[in-house]
Amino acid sequence: MDRIVTIERHIIDQQREHPEATGAFSDLLYDVALAAKIIARETTRAGLVEILGLAGKVNVQGERQMKLDVFANEAMIRVNSFTGRLAVMASEEDTGIIPIPEPYETGKYVLVFDPLDGSSNIDVNVSVGTIFGIYRRLSSIDQAGTLADCLQSGHNLVAAGYVIYGSSTVLVYTTGRGVHGFTLDPTMGEFLLSHPNIQSPTQARYYSVNQAYEPYWSEGVKAYTRWLQGIGDESDSPALSGRYIGSLVADFHRNLLSGGIFYYPANTNRPEGKLRLVYEAIPLAFIVEQAGGYASDGHRNILDIEPKDLHQRTPFFIGDRGLVKRAEAFISKYDEQK
């Protein structure tokens, strides 16, 4: 690149392609970037400000919340509650929808988010992340936002993104016109364009899955994994290397840039899957599709699924389009035809 492009400049440049735009959507994206800066500041100082470890609370998923989970959730809510740009929010950490407090105005957009994916890894300095999706509201502009506003299919997303907090902080987002990544320069306090027009690599390198659960997988998933490794009966195995971090954002980010597939399939203990449809699967599916990849629950496109519940879980396969389609084929062959 021959020029420095901040995320604010990039968002404004994209807004110019829509003369009818009021600027509210652009400002909302920048609000999310601001929240990411606040969270990044705390993740890098976590050991110094005593926010490592458990907060002593349990979230709606029945999981014990980490202190940094709580901080990240509150940061996202506080930054976005009073701007007049949102009708309603929903977070993985909250039981129900998050209304816009009175007397503040409501806007025409909806924000859903996982404030800190993989937060249990923060104690051991492994990358964690934030995932978000933005919709237009379905409800009337003159009323409070509703649950239905948050339970939309991924085809209705107007933007989605994630932030990875690691050796550097990187924000990746799409508005349906390409996928772009920005790295936070801590000396400037700005996200600078570092990964323009991200595309899924044509050559896959990695598969990412927690193989400790293999005894509980279906025969289709087991056979598929053997095929990925090059030890199955199929002759066209890609013989990929296994890489698994245990933070969804970190595993997805590596495979998005380097090529591969991440999957967290259903198993006998979790027949509905583990990952959250609204907060994790749908936003990442929107991103990967814009980059030329694909996401599935093992049977169908994640973006085709109409959520029924805020905290609905799903099996999840995401990454290289050909590899995900092949996973569907293995599941169909070994599991559905029994």
Task: Tell me what you see in this structure.
- It is a single chain.
- The protein is an alpha+beta fold.
- The chain has two domains: 7-195, Fructose-1,6-Bisphosphatase, Chain A, domain 1; 206-336, D-Maltodextrin-Binding Protein, domain 2, CATH 3.40.190.
- The protein is built from eight helices and 17 strands.
- It has helices at residues 7-15, 24-44, 67-80, 147-150, 219-229, 248-258, 277-290, 321-336; strands at residues 54-58, 64-66, 86-91, 98-99, 109-117, 128-136, 157-165, 169-174, 179-185, 190-195, 206-208, 241-242, 260-264, 275-276, 294-296, 313-314, 316-319.
- The strands form four sheets. The chain has an eight-stranded mixed β-sheet, sandwiched between helices. A five-stranded mixed β-sheet has the order 12-11-13-17-15, sandwiched between helices. A two-stranded antiparallel sheet has the order 1-2.
- Helix 5 packs across helix 8.
- The longest helix has 21 residues, at 24-44.
- It is globular.
- The protein starts with 6 loop residues before the first helix and ends with a helix.
- The model has no long low-confidence stretch (mean pLDDT 91).
